Amino acid sequence: MMDRLWNRNYIKVMIANFSLFFAFYVLTPLLPLYLSEHFGATKDVIGLVLSGYTITALLCRPFSGYIVDSFSRKTVLMVCFGTFAIFFAGYLAASTLLLFTIVRTLHGGPFGALTVSNSTVAIDVLPSSRRTEGIGYYGLSNNLAMAIAPTVGIFIYKFTASFEFLFWLALIVACLGWLVDATVVISRKEEGGKRKENTTAADTTLSGNLLPRSSFLLPRLSWDRFFLVRGWLLGLNMVAFGFSFGVLSNYLAIYGKEVMGITGGTGTYFMLCSVGLILSRLQGGKALREGRLTFNAGSGMVISLVGYTIFILLPTLSSFLLPPSSFLDKIGYYGSALLIGLGNGHMWPAFQNMTINVARNNQRGTANSTILISWDIGMGLGILVGGVVSELLGYGAAFWTVVLVNAAGVACFFLATKAFFLQRNLNPTVR
Asked: Rounded to an integer, what distance in angstroms lies between the CA atom of residue 11 and that of residue 126?
């Protein structure tokens, strides 16, 4: 009889994960507008301010993985979630650009630690026989938040014109997520991260039991306790995809408004993106259950690349027509949303599973932090480079940069990363 996937604790962790990403992404597409209209910030300054969040999250991720693998995961989770929620109140109190920059930058720390601890707890409450499939659904919870939250935020701002209301909404949703996670029960064998470092061969398999709780020795400090060296190329691939989404999610609203003249389309864009994410589960669920991770990753990357390409290609072609075709603009704009959502829905859970499958059992936190570190590096570079390129050459050039970086990531996967994973995979049931 197959183990139950949708157990009570797993559902709670997924709801909490949706809440934390909803609180984050409900503000993401509107913060450039807020900085521009409220503080008069220029495009390059906006990029610098927003990239601080990602840089701080990046700096905290490696230590987060070590702490989650070494101490009580429930305690770490509660502290990180509570701190993450409180920081939203700082946005309400920040009256100058400098204060906002400080609050925004520091906020990245608890976010980085929280995403690592919550995803590691999700793995702990899953039955080992359903872990690959379960991680796929878990990733869908934050992907859906990425797609739905910006739509909600833009809809609310359209009718209220109040950033203060949005900051309060993010604070309340984050607090609700903390309350849900507070009710999660973790078994004793998973709760204690303090284990012997000299694991046996049986313990290195993903389905093996953790070592007895009788040992309270902290893991030996080494570089591999902070970043999963065995998965470095998987991480490099994720940098390219994080870069692409960093530019898209942060500059879409301004690009649509200033360049394409689409003032109310950003909410629709992210809604279509969420539809693509849902479709990805219908298409890719069977492949994940069968352990075909490289298939899901490869197909997702190609679909996303097509989406990013038509996003900028069709409006570019339209500009050469006499008269310019608004029909082509809208096909490229809205059509790309569906494709990018579909592609990311395939790619993200596959890469997270692959990273976990090259890690030992006592490196689950490190594996999660590694894939998120890589995404953060890409997001941070995307926000920063996107702001600079758009200031110097325009938003069109910034989105063409997205296509080039994404294409490089796809090429890297098929030429090197796929074989890299298969050589290091510790779970014979996936491929």
From this structure: 10
